[in-house]
Amino acid sequence: MSDLTLNAETRTQFGKGAARKIRRDHKIPAVMYGHGADPVHITLAAHETMKALKTSNALLTIVLDGKEQLALAKDVQRDPIKPVIEHIDLVVVRKGEKVTVDIPVHIEGDAAPDTMVITDSTSLELEVEATHIPEGITISIEGLEAGTQILAGQVELPKGATLITDAETLVVNVTAQVSEEALEAELADAEAEAGIEREESDEAAASDSDA
User: Fold this and answer.
1) Residue 104: count of CB within 10 angstroms of its CB
2) Quick one: CA dihedral 33, 39, 45, 47, positive or negative?
3) Does the pLDDT at position 210 exceed 60?
4) Beta strand pairing call for 123-129 and 98-108
5) What are the record keywords, sorted (predicted)?
6) Are 150 and 181 in contact (CB under 8 A)?
7) Is the pLDDT of residue 167 over 90?
């Protein structure tokens, strides 16, 4: 994954009022930490930063006072209503260092006819090199029959990656497709067991009156 360069400025004002002023200036308050160093408080250009963070696990090159530092966005606080980033926690990383990240799972292909595919885990936690974070993990379900299950430990991982997620975690479950009639029958049985009486539908009532 190519790293993205963001220019940063040192932040000297703190508090909610200062943060609001920073955002009014189209910047984002952030803090960089890691490797035992003191936290560094910075501001980043809002537009460029939001573009960079559209990619999950984006490796960022933060340029501060002419010096470059690799970092990953550890926590991104977003406004619940407006498309605005309120604050970012950045963790400092180094080339060759391994980091633990959640990698999205992508499903490709078509399972066998009359099956239903359920993705139980949409991401897997992996340990990977900070400078070689995969964008995703692709799992093929082409031709898989009902009853097939794919566990985390069976997924082919990118080169150099180590699985952190429990190997027994269910990722993909292929089941037989249930017909509408079968679903209706199951629902009726469940309601009967619970002592719930169904109201007769208008169509059924009309059919009975015609008879």
Assistant:
1) 14
2) positive
3) no
4) antiparallel
5) Ribonucleoprotein, Ribosomal protein, RNA-binding, rRNA-binding
6) no
7) yes
Is residue 153 within 8 A of residue 168, CB to CB? The reply is yes
Question: Does residue 27 carry a pLDDT above 80?
Answer: yes
Predicted structure pTM score: 0.71
| 63 or 37: which leads in pLDDT | 63
Token pair for residue 93?
A: 């990383």
Domains defined for the chain, CATH in brackets: 4-94 (2.40.240.10), 100-176 (2.170.120.20), 180-210 (no CATH)
What letter would DSSP give residue 153? G
Indicate the average pLDDT of the chain.
Answer: 85
Helix (H, G, I), strand (E, B) or coil at 83: coil
User: What's phi and psi for 203, nearest 5 deg?
Assistant: -65, -40
Instruction: Give the angle 7-9-15 at the CA atoms, nearest 5°.
Output: 130
